[in-house]
Protein 1
Amino acid sequence: MTRSDPYPLLFLDIDGPLIPFGGAGYPTYPLAGDTGGNPLLDRLDPALGPRLAALPCELVWATTWGADANPLVGRRLGLPELLVTDLPDDSPGPVEDLPGPPDLPGPGPGRLHWKTRCLVARAAGRAFAWVDDEITSEDRAWVAANHPTPALLHRVDPVTGLTDRDFTVLEEWLRRHGS
């Protein structure tokens, strides 16, 4: 069940964690209704919904799907209407420069995911977990230095999406840091 304060937030990306990509031979699931033109929605495993809803947290979308996340993904998973994090419309791609040498290739040293600052601001001091397929050590270091409460930045392999192991990590962390 989706919960609010004092439970930690769980910021959830869609492409990669919920809809795997980049590999071959994915299981597919029947689709009904509007797909928004997304040819990968049939990879969305409906069994993920009850598992996410059972986590001791407040689920929040953190995805470029924006307002489409609830009708196109959340409903298919059986989730209630979730809050959607306001992300910049003009995302610079997966990374942005941190102060420092401007010639660093990204992602890597000196590079920060473009969502990182937005999610820390949205958390507003609450403990949070973030599930995404583009998280790096730079994001973890920046959050540790700029967020006053516990945060778990959990990178999911986009080829497999969320696995049992990922759910175990999330469940243990959320139980440890929930009130």
Protein 2
Amino acid sequence: MENRGRQRYSDATKRALVEVAEQLFTEHGYAATSLDAIAAGADVTKGALYHHFSGKQAIFEAAFERVESRATSGIAQATEGHRDPWDKARAGLRAFLAAVQEPGYRQVVVSDGPSVLGHERYREQEERSTYAIVDEIVRSVLTADDGTLGDARLDDTMLDTFTRIFFGAMSAAGGSVAVSDDPAAAAQRVETAVGVILAGLQRLLDEDAGALRATPSAAGTTSRR
């Protein structure tokens, strides 16, 4: 019982430190936030902070993961219950654009994330959190009919290529919204632009599917003649 009590206290202390760190990093940025301020905000000693985290970058990374996890959960919830893959894609886009307008995402993920974590680590964190959702959405819309696009057969390699292109585009679009002086207006422009792309892709896939459905019938008519 005593060990469990100590573990619960330790877990609660760690959560409090990450919550305070996220708040301070959001309000003041990484450079202007000190470990002393984080420890004081969580009402613990600096030694207790070092018991859980090796230093400032480590606790920043935990705060970064918390912000990303919250954004990912919001996108996942927004896409649930949509049977139509295109509606799912549009719902996911709107949830993503809402997330990147949050102050924590704008400061912790977009402004400080790349410089504090480094490019490789930053990309790893992004891919771990949101890549799977983008991959699921891309596969659902591209394989809704026959799994072809024009003359291209959409095998796993091709689907992965589409996912990486869309993921990169959405990351760039999200970054432009996050750093905008008017993020709401920037988000609306992105939603409009991506909506046009999705509509065009949907028409192309529908045309391909229609042509393929018509082919057997045409062949049958020819053979009867």
Protein 3
Amino acid sequence: MFEVEIKVPADVDAVRERLREAGAERVDGRRQRDAYYDAPHRDFAETDEALRVRRETPLPSGISPADAADEAEGPDPGSNAPPTAPETTKITYKGPLLDEGSKTRAEHETEVADPEAAAGILSGLGFEPAATVEKRREFWAYDGFTVTLDAVDGLGEFVEIERAVAEEGAIEAVRDDALDALDRLGLDGAEQVRTSYLGLLLAEDDADASDDG
């Protein structure tokens, strides 16, 4: 399976409004905490691969700072709000970038029942935690694509558009369709960021370290 994906920095409130005007459907919201691992046998930074354990919980509200503050406070004790849904955990391998015009990669993912056991297995095999990325996300269905509105801790707001394809030969056509869809949402695909959130955060950390030095 290949994930054809384009990511651009954006004002998510403005994009959300355009999605609504276009008749798109908000299908989900999630708070995600992604733990990335270094491998003992090769340098993922050099091979452009990633191994991630993602823990996520439902996010019924939006992703703005105000919504995040309300979520942190929890429901009113006197309300009839439903109980918080359980956390889910997935482990994902992402291969190197395959396409110069997008963030397309081979991806393999599966849900795990016990995140602590998964972490123990990775540790026992010599995989070490490298960094953690935390974000709040809204998922919208639009014109055959999943459009994700992201608020990433330490980085800001982004929009991702993606579709999974089974054959590598379909990547180019789907990428071009994704660029057209972004244009209809008022976004410029030429501004896309091909670096992962992990890579962006590590670059921020390196810049901060240089400033401190």
Protein 4
Amino acid sequence: MMSAVQDILLNFFCAFFGTIGFAVMFNVPKRFYISCGTTGAMGWIVYCLAVEHASAAVSSFFGALVVVLISRMLTVRLKCPITIFMISGIFPLVPGAGVYYTAYYLVTGQLGEAAQRGIGAVKVAFAIVLGIVFIVSIPREFFQPRYWKKRWSLHKASKEA
């Protein structure tokens, strides 16, 4: 029997290497492999922690928020496109099994089960899209250190006046 820490570490490393596998498949430059792996693993860990207390769709939303937030920060820091981190980082959250079982139940004639699995997969996909939209709608300047330094200096100047 595994402890909670071992379970989290196992999930982290599986998501980390799985995300790196997708990064390799999509020809991401080698220097970004570790960042891609970390992005996907962090999103998956948030999903795993949230799914104990919420539905798969809500958990996927929070996982997607983390993936896109980390992707935005890495984009500014490493000066590269956001898709490098976001596309490979989202893969652990994609409801592949839900889509597979939807098709399986359709083929075997179990329409009620197919509808249930299909709706669940659509909910998860929609939650991922919402997570992406929420973070991508934040202006790029928000993720740059100059923005915060300028705001801090304006805040200090207003307090002194």
